[in-house]
Specification:
mainly alpha; 2 strands; 71% helix
């Protein structure tokens, strides 16, 4: 007599037959799915965007503070400012992999909100430092608190959204980085008028004012964010079941209890996968540009026309960041619609290269400022597309979380050498910094192309049955458990 396999629903506790589940995959109410997606968007995206905006603001405001006398007041000499910027990433990168691997065990919503409270406190007290040594200590602690945020947000989004929806949703995190640049410039412009009030220089006011909002938003997120689809308080039981079905429909290999658990074999599989190392190197090269832009855009714009006042320079950084957000969202939307990633990453590299060439070669003030916009056009796309592309092709949680941690740990370690690419002695053209960045972006384009070709080639082989030997003699459960190594798995490109 034939038997029907069944599994227990993680929400209702009822046993559901595989036949019924498979039928549900093809009969999902599209209208109901849109309602659920809208609820997710409203309850997740605004808050995580704001959290990341504040994180980037608290991290990068030292660049704005430099123009308001931070170096002089603290007695910084030589490359000590660059070291203060760079040392942040020493602790930042150290905690990225462990935090992503153990995120589920740490209660994601509470962990993300808790570190926001912590870095807000540290950022605020940085405004009271009196010397180089205390500045270094605060930057090290700030990196330790902020380090887990970005990779954990990426993993957090994969809990709720399908891989066809990730680029646009991740765009809101990217928007946080761009908004922080725009908001940072506006705040620096306004706070510049507080210089000397109550005996505090403007750079101290900048840090003291920008830190507390992180504490407040972290406290709110502690109670508002859900840890997973199963615990989403703002969804009904039926809507939470729908999320589970959506995940199964998106990637069958991610639907089993084993795929959603943490296994040592998955961690090792991530370490052995050359594609993950390629994505990690790609992010390192792309992040050099992001960090130099974030920390030195005011300095670069000031060099274009030294006659511009500090306050005016701060204001000129705002349109660049606004444009970078617009460019990323346009590309992310198109990428999700076309379900293609690689070509956009390559094109973004080329556009940014044009901007750096304009800054090196231009003697015209307007042309050089326009060059800043060309750089901004691709700055978040190169890295952002890669960060979405890789985890969307890793259905097993253990491998995905390890891979994201590796990718972002190696990527954000770019913040260590990046500050030294634009020494003050290279003003006004900063030829070394722009030239090195051009070379790194060219390598980014090549790596994008290699990954694209590899995944297309693998998909063709699997479609032709050339990898079916891998599943000979295996049960259906074992085949599903292979994740992206299964001959049935098709890579998103």
């Amino acid at each position: 007599m034939a038997t029907t396999k069944s599994h227990k629903s993680p929400l209702s506790g009822e046993f559901i037959s595989e036949e019924n589940t498979d039928e549900a995959l093809t009969t999902v109410d599209k209208a109901a799915e849109k309602i659920v997606l809208r609820k997710l968007d409203w309850h997740i995206l605004p808050l995580i965007t704001l959290i990341y905006t504040l994180a980037f603001l608290d991290r990068a405001n030292i660049g704005n503070g430099r123009l308001y006398g931070l170096e002089k007041d603290l007695g910084l000499k030589g490359n000590q400012f660059q070291t203060a910027v760079s040392v942040f990433f020493a602790t930042y990168v150290a905690c990225e992999v462990p935090s992503t691997i153990f995120l589920k065990k740490l209660r994601p919503a509470r962990f993300i909100s808790g570190i926001a409270i912590l870095w807000g406190i540290i950022a605020t007290f940085t405004g009271l430092v009196q010397n180089y040594e205390s500045l270094l200590a605060c930057r090290l602690l700030l990196g330790l608190a902020e380090g887990p945020l970005f990779p954990c947000l990426i993993i957090y989004l994969t809990f709720f959204y399908t891989r066809k929806e990730l680029a646009v949703r991740f765009g809101y995190v990217v928007l946080g980085g761009a908004l922080s640049g725009a908001i940072g410039g506006l705040l620096a412009y306004a706070i510049g008028y507080l210089d000397g009030r109550h005996g505090f220089r403007a750079w101290r006011w900048l840090l003291l004012i920008e830190g507390p909002p992180s504490v407040a938003i972290g406290g709110f997120g502690w109670f508002f964010l859900a840890d997973s689809p199963e615990s989403a308080w703002y969804l009904s039981l039926a809507q939470r079941e729908l999320l589970v079905i959506r995940g199964r429909r998106d990637q069958h290999e991610a639907s089993s209890p084993s795929a959603n658990a943490l296994h040592r074999s998955d961690i090792l599989a991530a370490i052995k996968d050359w594609k993950i190392w390629a994505f990690s190197v790609l992010n390192f090269l792309a992040d050099i540009q992001i960090f130099t832009y974030a920390y030195f855009l005011p300095t670069i714009i000031k060099a274009i026309n030294p006659a511009w006042s500090t306050v005016y320079v701060q204001a000129l950084t705002v349109p660049c960041y606004v444009w970078s957000a617009i460019a990323y969202f346009a590309v992310a939307y198109t990428s999700d619609k076309l379900q293609h990633r690689a070509v956009f990453g390559i094109l973004a590299c080329l556009v940014s290269v044009i901007g750096h060439i304009m800054l090196i070669a231009g003697n015209n003030v307007a042309a050089q400022y326009v060059g800043c916009f060309f750089i901004a056009s691709g700055i978040y796309i190169v890295s952002g597309i890669a960060v979405v592309w890789m985890p969307s092709n890793l259905p097993r949680y253990g491998k995905r979380s390890t891979a994201v941690g590796m990718q972002l740990m190696i990527g954000t370690s770019a913040g260590i050498p990046a500050p030294y690419l634009y020494p003050i002695g290279d003003t006004p053209r900063y030829i070394m910094g722009h030239s090195v960045t051009i070379g790194l972006l060219a390598l980014c384009a090549v790596i994008n192309g290699v990954l694209w070709w590899s995944m297309v080639d693998t998909n063709k082989k699997r479609a032709a049955g050339k990898e079916d030997w891998k599943i000979s003699g295996l049960t259906e459960e074992e085949i599903v458990g292979m994740g992206d190594s299964s001959p049935r798995y098709i890579y998103a490109i």
